[in-house]
Amino acid sequence: MSEPCDLPAAAARALIGRRQLSASALLESCIRRIERVNHAVNAVVATDLARARKEAVAVDDAAARGETLGPIAGLPVGIKDLEDTEGLLTTYGSPIFATNVPAKDERVVRAIRAAGGIVIGKTNTPEFGAGANTRNAVYGATGNPFDPQVSAAGSSGGSAVALATGMVPLASGSDTGGSLRNPAAFCGIVGFRPSPGLVANEKRPLGWSSLAVTGPMARTVPDLALLLSVMVSDDAADPLATTIHDRTIHRQEDFFPLPLIDLSRLRVALTADFGFAPTERHIAEVFSEKAGIFRHVFARADDATPDCTGADEAFAVLRAVGFLASHLAKVREQRRHVGPNVIANVEEGLGYSAVDVARAGALQTALYRRWQDFFREYDVLLSPAITISPRPWRELYPVEIDGRRTKTYFHWLALAYAVTLAGHPAVSLPVGCDRAGMPFGLQIIGPRGGDARVLAIAAALEAMLAADPRTARPVPDLARLEAAPRLAESEGFLGFD
Known about the structure:
Helix 2 (23-41) packs antiparallel against helix 3 (49-64) and helix 5 (157-164) runs parallel beside helix 6 (181-187). The chain contains 14 helices and 17 strands.
């Protein structure tokens, strides 16, 4: 039998409910796994073990009394270090907040605790989530579980690595330009970008912007759906939260358990680049090979893409505007404590005019409407989740792909931000490895508002592909990680660049 920490979250929760596994035993298994391999990858950066142990005992006592347990009762959860946790260090990966201990949880953390989840600790992130390479000047770099010297991507890199190595069965993340999907792809786990507003977020400074969302991460799609089911809710502090006065539209049971999907009835489009993304030839070829294994199961599978004209310009401007809202004061008043990605975005934003912002909004709207036309013909859209195979984390971002220079530090995330601009829900599903032996992520994009549907499609694909070693979820070599040197001893470990 595997260690309790390696169990699927849904299976572990069922065992806890039947008193065949104690919450305390599961927690201690996760703690042992952190102690065993975290030195090699630096995924979990702050812990609250005394409180976690107390909460696990409370779950076990409640189970012994026959009480009704919450949906994720007794399951340890890693919380991304961008999310406020009461009494637990929350740095946002910034030296400015290196000693910040919030007085209260933010909404999504409160929801996780209310459903019985046990916050075991915080997972590493780049400074304020800027950039898809998880490293910062507080905790240093996070290494990929398949090779600690290469990137885990980001910004939810710590969560992805903690999941891949069995440190936690569930973790939170957030996504603007792929910050859930990119690390899921690099680390061989599942990440989900929900529709804006589905998971209410009271912290966004631009409340009506649809770019940034919070979402779940897990090792399997059903586990991910379980976590999503407790994250979903209304909150009047989030103007995008989907609601009708006094009535929340979405319910927990809408997302777990997922409905069954007949793949043979689906009309599917496949694209390696959306017509504009700088996808590495290697990744495009692997995508074609993987798709060749399963595309025959669909009613229709066409090589086609929605028109993404203007995506680069729109995302660059709208992203920079978001950075102005969040970080202008920090750059002006504490510049020496701010990293290069945040500074670059703020300075870029200062160079745009109101005309540029209006044009970016119009480009995004036009792209969205073209996507709606596209999804009248197709049920789902498939692509690689990220444009490249993992590279060393010392490279702050890829300056070139196949010999061609990237336009910005986030240009290599174009496969993700095309979807962000359209506002459609998307899953990154692990589908075996690429030719370099690193995990390969398949991006599964659903229709507008089709969160439960795209997750059900991903679950059906996951179940079908799990038996084939070419497409099954890869698992890191834990013995190799245990024997690996401390990542903190690596040159360039601590810092922004």
